[in-house]
Amino acid sequence: MQVTYLDITGAMKMARTRAVNISECGMAIELPEAAMPLSLVRFQSDRFKTRGQGAVRHCRRVGNRYIAGLEFSEGLRWHPPQGEFSEPVPICDSRSN
């Protein structure tokens, strides 16, 4: 997925990344740099036909990457697939960003 975010200096950044996990009200994404707390991250995935934004609620370093926890905004909610599915539910292709 493509994301646009503010780094901790307030500079606008763009990155291709992946979601680490997702819930009804938010998701965690990998970033190459720390994101500014409480700033908005815009995201878009053509493959999964989704776009939206979320506020950074936390951001921590994990190895050489950062994990940013986003709370969805603008009434965005995630819903699991309908019918039977096996866990874990894929939220992005783990082979690519």
Strand content: over 45%
Count of separate DSSP helical elements = 0
Distance between the termini: 6 Å
Average pLDDT figure: 87
Structural class: mainly beta
User: pLDDT below 50 for ≥5 consecutive residues: which ranges?
Assistant: 93-97
- The level of helicity is under 10%
Backbone CA Rg: 13 Å
Domains, number:
1
The global form is globular
SSE order, one letter for each helix or strand? EEEEEEE
Task: Name the strands of the widest sheet in spatial order.
Answer: 2-1-5-6-7-4-3
Number of DSSP-assigned strands: 7
Short description:
The protein is mostly beta strands and 97 residues long. It has strands at 2-6, 12-16, 19-22, 26-31, 40-45, 50-62, 65-72.
